[in-house]
Amino acid sequence: MNIFVLILCILLIACEICVVLTKDILSSIIIYMSFSMIMCIIWTLLESPDLAITEAAVGAGITTLLFFATFKKIHVIDEEVDDSNES
């Protein structure tokens, strides 16, 4: 079990670094969502199901959807998709 927790902590640090270094907005959102899901697993392992459910619903669910909706509304996502299609 301790090795699993150590792997999760390493994945959290990797997600933090990747979010900072990634220039693609869509990739950053997906990495942020995976960070929240890893935190959800950690909260479950710490026997705190209320925080795990909240982290899954708010962190990985609602916040990610709000990011997608906001970037779609300001046409950031459309520009990135167009740029990748031209290449």
Structural summary, described in words:
The protein has four helices and no strands. It has 87 residues and is an all-alpha fold. The longest helix has 25 residues, at 49-73. The radius of gyration is 15 Å and the shape is flat. The termini are far apart.
SSE order: HHHH
Task: Provide the helix percentage.
Answer: over 70%
Spans of at least 5 consecutive residues whose pLDDT stays below 50 are none
Total of helices: 4
Rounded Rg: 15 Å
Largest sheet: none
How far apart the termini lie comes to: 45 Å
List descriptors.
4 helices; mainly alpha; 0% strand; flat; 87 residues; single chain
Summarize the structure.
This protein has 87 residues and is an all-alpha fold.
